[in-house]
Amino acid sequence: HTCAMRRAIARARVRKKTPWHHFVVIVAALVASARAGDDDEVQHSESSAILDDHARALEQLIAQPTHTAPLVKDAFVKLANQARHAPTLRELREKALTVGSGTVEQALAEDDIEGADERDRWIAAREALYALSALGKVGLVDEDAFVGETASGEDDYGAFERLTETGSETWYQSALERAALMGDDWARTALGFRLWKGFDGVEKDEERALSMLRDVATTGLGRGPTTYELEAPSGAEWLRDRDRDAGWYSESIAAKAADQVAMEIDAAARGDDGAHAQLGYRALVGGRGVEQNERAAFEHFVEAAHRRGGGLPEAHYNLGFMYMNGMGTEKNYTAAREEFLRAISKGQIAPAYNGLGVLAFNGLASEQNYTEAMLYFTAASKLEDPDGYFNLAQMYTAGHGVEANATYGLEIMEKASELGHWRAPYELGMVYALGEVVEKNVTKAARYFHIFIEERFNWAEHRNEAIEEVLLHQNPWGALVRYALVSSLGSESAANNVAWLLRKTDAYTSENKFELAARMLREIIYCYESPEARVDLAGLLSERKVRPDLTFDLKDHYDQLVPNASTYEIAATGHLSVAAFGEKPYAEALVNLGWAHLFGRGVAINASRSLELFTAGAAASETSYEATPCVFAIVMTKVWLFAAAASRSLSFGSLGLPAEHFSALPTPKLNFSTVRGFMAVRILRLIEVIERYVLFGLSLALAGVLAYRAMLPSR
Q1: Contacts of residue 581, Cβ cutoff 8 Å, sequence gap at least 6
Q2: 129, 191, 332, 520: least buried by Cβ within 10 Å?
Q3: Maximum Cα–Cα distance across the chain
Q4: Do 234 and 464 meet the contact criterion of CB atoms below 8 Å apart?
Q5: Which of 507, 519, 591, 593 is nearest to 551 (CA)?
Q6: How far apart are the C-alpha atoms of 391 and 472, rounded to whole Å?
Q7: 8 A C-beta contact, residue 464 and residue 239
Q8: Residues 581-622: pLDDT tens digits?
Q9: Residue 281 contacts by C-beta under 8 Å, 6 or more apart in sequence?
Q10: What pLDDT shows up at residue 517?
């Protein structure tokens, strides 16, 4: 079924990362002509009043401006009432003991569900359980809110009572397990992730996690194209980058902005090849300000490829793809081959090599020729094409045109997965789960299945919806709800954005908002070893907005702590040191440790150490916006130390820096015979210092302008 909850939190399908992208990506297609059809159950779900009511409850929850709005309580109560139609956890567990693994939902459906309405109540109940579980885990569900009348006047007596019928588990853990046993794919993914990692009150059980994630991945295998992808998955966008990069913008929003589409249409009318190619892409995938229309896409690609002075090599590839699959035109394998060859001759387009390999492997434009296919797939892989790697791995594994070598095939398949091939993670998960080609590795298998599930179930789509709530609709509460629903699945970026929204916005204004953010950051650190989360948690601890967790925050100690450091400082610097000196040093952590040494925040006061850390941060930076704070810190520290030394020489103090920086340079004692002589010398020195301040101020301003220009994205 297409879930009502998923329909409620997903509108536009924006998954491509780069706005001006002219490729249509062929994925892992050895049989390139098959196309996935629509699920018959989608139509039933969309015409169901029960599931529509469930979707409206979620839309109502997301649309509110703040968590204190009366309709938020009303939406929570509606979800709780829908969840009451689910069996209890005890009933579900007892039923699970009588059936084999992976068949619990089917057995329950056969015994307990009769008719379409009952089936829809079942779906609405399990989705409501998952939604309440995900939001409850973050701490957004106020249990006291279920007492009294709702904004709509409904009597909600007992709405929360059955939801909280649990044993040793918290109510949201129980709700998650109930939804998973009822067959909800998101709930099974979330529970499988907890079993894999062993957190949130769930005992680690990798074998059970593998079984659950493999079942969901197998279900996902049938979702969408099985031989090609029209869109590449978008990269995850982190809201915390808004605080660090002056040139940051959301690429998912920019890709479908109305003014962007209008600009492309105008440019295409004036004969711009790139605009035609982009409009063709939009028309092919739909949902980007242009209605999906394969014929219109084909015509745009023809314009971009043939009618404007030679055309774009990418457009030739796209035409070949459409000829090969019969999209917007009749299938013509000969024409497809010709277009692929033009794309290669004009631009060495990697997917075009893969397309030629697909034709040769299947004998579509000429006789089947494994040797030729191998050559083309190899050429594509040398240009870092994920499809070329995947198809090459398939040939080595099966021994098509080459001696079978499953071990080498596995190595190539892992490269395809690294480059983002949609099906490679599933194949790798099966290899490591079965343990036939290589030794069984449950941890690797679970990881690959989890990667595959993220792509197949369109997490990126829901993350894009959430970022729109923040940037377009100015609704941080709606974004917080959306991100919470995805973060429960095991999405690092969504979890980090939940923590950012709790820390930086008024999406949730209860007194415990920072503690909730800290709890989320600790989970991110535990599950992903995230240096970003360590820096953010260190910030909360150093500002004393949250209390240290004695069992988690004090596991790592920085080796330059002072004896009188507070528990907060020990915890904060411990997290920073792990992020700063790990296998891959993190620039932001190095800079923050440098400032701690400059001001003596729980560590030894040492300006030389500060400058050393700032320099190391600049060296570890991967982007200009990461390097800029490091360079600024170096310049600022040197100017500040010089100015403070001059100020101390005039008995004006150290300008906010600790006096320990100047212990080796005692303040000079001036011996004058008269007060008048002393004042004259002091005035002259003051004039000299002012001149130096002006000079350094101008230098600092110039450095700031240059740093800002370096942070601006190239256009």
Answers
A1: none
A2: 332
A3: 108
A4: yes
A5: 519
A6: 41
A7: no
A8: 999 999 999 999 999 999 999 999 999 999 999 999 999 998
A9: 21, 22, 24, 297, 318
A10: 96
